[in-house]
Structures are given as C-alpha cells and as structure tokens.
Amino acid sequence: MDGKRIVLTADRSLMTNYRGNFLYGFIACGPYEVLPEWVFDKVFCPSVETDPVTGEAKVAQVGLRRVESALLQGYNRNEVFVAQPDHLAKCIGTDTKVVGINVMDPLGMAPVTTTMSPEKLSYVAMKFKRMCASIIQLKKKYNFHVVVGGNGAWELAKTDRMKIHGIDTVVVGEADELALDLFHDLEKGDAPELMHCFVKNIQNIPIIQGPTVNSLIEAMRGCGRGCDFCDVNKRSKKDLPLERLQHEAKINLDYGFDSIWLHSDEMLLYGCDNRNFQPNYDAIIGLWKGLKSLGARFVGTTHMTFSAVCADPKLLRDMSEINGMSNEKWLATNLGIETVAPRMVKKHLGVKTKPFSTDEWGWVVREGAKILNQNH
C-alpha cells in the first residue's frame, strides 16, 4: 500500500502535550515574530511521541480520537492513520483518499489570539498555514480530498478561505454521528462544501481507542448556562457515564500519563438536571473517586463556574481532599467572569449566576475565588 487510505492530523501547535501544562498552550496564541520557533518547538511545546519511520502520532487530540473511532466502525484498522503533521509525506500516497484535519484556531481569530497577537501572525495560525502548504503540494500529486473539523472550523467556513488552504469540506459542530458516512461521501466526491451537525444521542459518541493530548477526556458536552455569546450553549448538556470515562482514562494511564484531565464547559454541573443549578455532590465525588481509584495522581478539570463553586463549598473541599492537595500542591481551572456590571450580566449571561441572582454576581465571584484559593 502506498500511503494510508484515511489520514487524520492537526497542526503542530496542537500535536503537543505542552510539557504537561495546559497554560503553555496559550503561547501558541502569541505572535510568531516575537518568540523564536526553536523555543516554541523545543522548550514549551515539544511534539507528541511520533514513530520516526511511519510518522504515526502516538498521542492526539480527543476530538481527533473521536473521529478515528467513528471511522473504525466502517474502515479497517490499517486504513485509518493518525499522523504527526511534520511527517505527512511518509503516510500520504497514491492510495490516500481523504485527509482529515482537526483545528482549534486555524486563522488566529479566537479571543485569546486576537488579544495576544493583534494584527500579527500567531503561532497557531502560522503552524496551520505551514501544514496546509505541505498538504496542498501532496494533494496536487495524489489527488485526495481534504476535510476540516473541530472547534475552530467556523473560521474556515467561507469558500475563499477553503480554496486558499486546499480544503474541500468544512464541518462545523459535532461530527461523531456523521463521520463515517461523510468520509465515504468524500471518497466518492459527493460531500458538501459545508456541513453543520450536532450529536443527537450520547450513545453515538464513539469511545476513544488511543491516548489523548495531556490525558484529556470529555466528561460532558454542552453547559446549559445560556450565555448569549457562547457557542457551547447551542448544544444540550450531555453527561458521559462513569464506566465509560474510566475506560477512556485507563487508556491514557496505560500509555504512561499519571493523571486525568476532564474536559467540560461546566464541570460542577455534571450529573445535574439543570433545574436549580445545584451541583450533584454524589455524582461528582463518585466521578473523582472512580477515576482516582484507577491510579491517577490527581483528577483535574478544564472549566467550572464561580456560581457552582459557591453553591457547594464542601464539594470543592472534598474534591481537593481526594486529589491530596495541600499548601505545596495546586491545580488550575478556567472560570469565566465575563462581566460584573449588573446590566450586562442580566442582558448576556443567561442563568450563569444561578442558583444566585444576577445582583449577587459580584459577591459570587469574590467568594468563589476565596473558596478555590482555600482548596488549592
């Protein structure tokens, strides 16, 4: 076989474990001209483990792993290949039919990037452009189709942008349920230029089959807070069951990671029916204990809100105790304050302040920060 039938990849700014520190990922949002590339590539964002002969990436983004698993429901294992972007020429050939690309912020249009690199080329945009230039040359030679998806796919959802980057189809939304049919259509040349899709049934989200960047797995999708500026709010909240999360966590621990990171846009609403936005103590503590019991050094999460923190301070104390946090240890997470101006809160933040009132939001932010600091 000359080349893999299906090749999945992402730009180099995403194919890294960021030395175990998610915050290093923000360096990719900074201007390319300020930081020498060797510092970016070697010091802050070294590549994931890669097979030097085949170009296979041993670790990949969780979204790319989802697509890989969906495709393996209809393709053979040796037909679907996850590649490190610097080694694409090793796995693309005459037998290659489709190249799938996962993107986060391909044109540098996301808020953090436009803040850190105003009117300048960011690392994330530069790495994407460089990868696309390589793919375009390979495409001229082997005539395959290119599809792009991921959180930043919306940036490319215009015909002129697609043409410049050699893209045939852009998928905006969640491709889990449609990935297999889409790739079959791509092979036949019947795929649409632009698709918008969302997962209807949580059972149709495929289980990952390989380790993920920084041992990150999805605990849930959607949020339910209703902020009018947030794309995540377009999706209904879906919680993935503990047994499934343990299975995916074990894949990462078996690879060699020593901890588990849970992706969520509002972790403290896991297992909550969103009627009163009161955290489900039993569900979250059961999740933390269930994952920690696998041998993880700690269990972290990407996002939560101050309102949920304030709603149950004991929950944070017990999560910290399960992780063995102390004055010498700490974990970070993302919390969106957005604004504390009462008029803006009422107008834009939906039910983000619940179970508190919008007028209490300023107090909630201060008290929530206090609780988080007390619990490391």
Q: Going across the biggest sheet, name each strand in turn.
A: 2-1-3-4-5-6
**What's the CATH first level of the largest domain?**
Alpha Beta
- Helix-strand pattern: EHHEEHHEHEHEEEEHEHEHHHH
The CATH topology label of the largest domain is Rossmann fold
Q: Work out the helix count.
A: 12
Biggest sheet, in brief? 6 strands, parallel
End-to-end distance: 53 Å
Q: Helicity range of the residues?
A: 25-40%
Q: What's this model, at a glance?
A:
With 376 residues, the protein is of the alpha/beta class. It contains 12 helices and 11 strands.
Summarize the structure in words.
The protein is of the alpha/beta class and 376 residues long. The protein folds into two domains: 6-202, Rossmann fold, CATH 3.40.50; 213-374, Aldolase class I (TIM Barrel), CATH 3.20.20. 33% of the residues lie in helices and 11% in strands. The chain has twelve helices and eleven strands. The chain has helices spanning 37-44, 62-71, 111-116, 123-142, 159-164, 179-188, 242-255, 281-292, 306-311, 313-323, 342-348, 361-374; strands at 6-10, 80-82, 98-102, 145-149, 169-173, 194-197, 216-218, 220-221, 238-239, 260-263, 299-301. The strands form three sheets. It has a six-stranded parallel β-sheet with strand order 2-1-3-4-5-6, sandwiched between helices. Strands 7-10-11 form a three-stranded parallel β-sheet.
